[in-house]
Amino acid sequence: MAAQQEIRLRLADDGDIDRLIDIHYDCFKQAPFTRYVWRNVANSEMDYKSVMRHYNFRQYFRSESHIIMVAERTTGAGRLVVGYCIWEWATNPDINGGSGIALVQQIRDQQREKEVGFGSITPSWWSVEEIAVDRQFQGLNIARILLGWGLKIADDRNWLVAVMSSPASTGLYEKTGFHYHGGNQPAARREIKVRGESEGCNIFIMKRVPQAGPLVVYYLSTA
């Protein structure tokens, strides 16, 4: 538990972008979307990171429907962002006009509080967009800590959670209560296509219904 006690969760800010992109690139440089960008947009690692900075991560920060949670760990040089999780939600259009603006503002205004308040806006589901952990800090349950933060919020508010998982990550989601969409792995399998082009690999659509009782993941307060 010593390593886990050194981990602090908070919402990302603009100053984290370069670090998030470094982690993203190292973890996903062989992923289908990354390969697509390399083939069609970027000519170098610097170009790729520039594309991600301006067309992905900055869009997440401006988005009314995305939240980026980061995990920091104490090192000899101070605190270092060692992982992140990007969450997206959808609101019921019949509730408060379906606007996510107030929800985002409440999360950001109260990020230092132990319990995040959401007022009367009720998303119908969370979606795990992306989880990544610096390779030097993998094996410390950081991905489960990040996932646990969002799952606790979902359980407390009776939200469904969905994820499109790579084959390598399905174990993490299985251990935290996710099930394959359609009831089994073959039914949940989808072939990845980027801009209509097949990438020759699969993802698995998984869902998790709200669960009562303690969450079987490490959960640290954002306070």
UniProtKB/TrEMBL annotation:
InterPro entries: Acyl_CoA_acyltransferase, GNAT_dom, Trichothecene_AcTrans. Gene3D superfamilies: 3.40.630.30. It holds the Pfam family Acetyltransf_1. It comes from Cercophora scortea. This is N-acetyltransferase domain-containing protein. GO terms for molecular function: acyltransferase activity, transferring groups other than amino-acyl groups. Residues 7-210 form the N-acetyltransferase domain.
